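Recap from last week: sequence in, structure out.
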Amino acid sequence: MKQEIVLTHEFVEYIPNHLKDGTIYVSMAFATVTHKCCCGCGNEVVTPLSPTDWKLIFDGQSVSLDPSIGNWNFACQSHYWIRGNRVKWASQWSQEEINAGRFHDSLAKKKYFSSTKPLDVDGAIASSKEVGTGTGKPKTSFWQKLKRWLFRTNAS
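Predicted structure tokens:
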């Protein structure tokens, strides 16, 4: 089993040109987290933050990334989780598992980006939380209802 590694994190606007070993750089402005591969090979790992890529969890003291980091394009092919600034080593994947993971990821992206996003009452694209289940119509929020009521009341 590989040794446990404790990382530090830095919130930055821009990812620095030279990354320090053991540091996770988080750029919320560019929805990106970058670090040097935790196996020590020196490769830079870039994890984009998005609904179809990685999710960042910040608890006020440490960061976690979900899902795991699988460096399948690197010679090391290291595989690990970052949980509470700690590296938790995961099992090595076979080529078949890597291919299945990539296929699953591509289906998730296709599903997410091909879904039609209805417009909300102001003409902006509604988020998935605002869409009424199964209706394809935007769900009206409390604030939107209040705004309509106020304008109707003032117009009368």
